[in-house]
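>> received
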Amino acid sequence: MIQSASYGDGVVMTRLEGKGNGENDVALTPESEAALLASGSGKLASVTYQGGMGPVSVRVIDPLSVPDAEFELRVLGEAGDLDEGEDVNWVLTNLTMLDTAMSASDSAKAIVTSDRTIDVLNEQLILQWGLGVTCQQKVYSSGDEVATPLGSSITFSNPQEPWLQGIPDAEGFVENNWIRSGTQEGDAESPYELTYDDLMDEEELYEGFLGGTWAPYSVVSYTNADVEDPATGATYEFLPLYAPTRDDLKRVQQWNTPESTTSVDVVFTSDRSKWTRCPVLEMQPNDILAQNATGASGTIEKMNLRRHKSVDKFGRTVDDADVNQGDATMVSGTGMGWFPGYAIDLATGERLNMAFGEDSWLSADNGKDMIWNPSSNRQYMGGQHWIYIFKSGQAASGQGNRMPPYDRGQFIMNELGDNPGITNEKKVFRDCAWVGSARSNPDFPMLSVEDGLIPNETRVSLRVARAYDKYSANVIDTDNVDNAKNFWDPLYTFSTSDVATRSEEVAVLEEMLEEINVVPNPYYAYSQYETSKLDNRVKIVNLPEVCTVRIYNLSGTLVRTYSKADPLTYVDWDLKNEANVPIAGGVYIIHIDVPGVGQAVRKWFGVMRPVDLDNF
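>> returned
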């Protein structure tokens, strides 16, 4: 028997339709992630999640009862409606059992329906298959300000070189108070806490998210160039958003509701084939100090495209003399660069668009080169290389005029390219999901752009609770269910072949033949198994349930035979022959025959002691 899993182990799960993760932590398999990066559309028809990290919790509760089978899990609402989880059940089908069913009653045994609707937290135990299923809908009420955070982490492939640092959120009238959490109202004397008029994140859930270095877009502060700190007279500008007088733009944050903040992985890598083409945003609010392209007219506002020629993955512009014209990474135009990595939405399995910022006035802190290479300068926020992650607005709204999955930054470029207005900016930033801060670690500096920038691959994981909902990788409008298998509601498949317990495995038995032994060996007149001074005893151990043990002397004469057919794993030999006569000391050959498996031969040496009658 081989027990492949332990209690609590999860299964590898593939999502075919639908999205969301309830309150489960999720992670794609490396194979799915690689396929997604190779996809030209930024999405896949199906994605696979690591064992125990799927959108629905399916775990082993009885390892010995798990069959080797294929399963399908459907979340079924009224006419495909999943709102609030009411009247919504899940159905688990054992496809292997269904395929071999001989009657209607057998088919019925292959299908299990949830005892309760998914608006109730409940783990249903399916004892006949040794599995437990938990699927609870996450519902946000109108009073919820932000998405429920599940956890955050940063993982370096080389933990000895933590090269990436952030800008932890602070409190009070300071430049790095950039996350809007708590109960302090923004006012004319507090430019650091301004978002829109209503308070956000009153419970301060995101003040310490990943050490206060990443936050949802909806809780990020903006600077106001018209407001000065009454204590110093200074205007603080090192914040990731900007809205000087335009209420319409700052209210973009209000559209980023709890349902729109999604679970993402942001991966930093030196592998250029995985880099993300994206806009570079100007973070300098003073148009006099900001870089202005030659011949350009008008002013450039913070959060618009940098007025710098677009660059390739080596930071070269198209007219650089040393450019290799055959380089497929070359781009033309203005304001486009490359982020050294990528972002993935774990709820939908989509690759996401990104942007990063630079303060072109801070050239000493790498703010003018169109490359994501933050400095270690705390005072100037590392050159303001803020990171922006945009969710797929198309998947969220079902509308084709919203932000798509990764399109090499084309949607953002079209909206912000030439003289963008408030409407264009709203189109872009209404789908901004996350803002991340960045500084390099002075003890572990970043590499040169020629060497790939990133010292070791690093993954930032940001997890929030998301409702189960409709999603299709094939159509934007999920009301069109013509080709849907489950109304585009969540549909998953998984196999238990990796966690099923296997019995009567001949290969395992053949390996176990090597474990058969005789103890003690050699035997010097005594053993710990003996019960009296007239008792002589050794054990032949690690035997299967059924076998035949034959003991021979060196001349080939059969001394003793044991036919074993019991669950014990050993045989006691009292060192006597078939006639119940004690054997002489010497070398003996022990042959074990296991039917249908094989044979094992062991040599044993024993020294016998004479019977001491004076003790009786």
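>> Residues 30-38 form the longest helix (9 residues).
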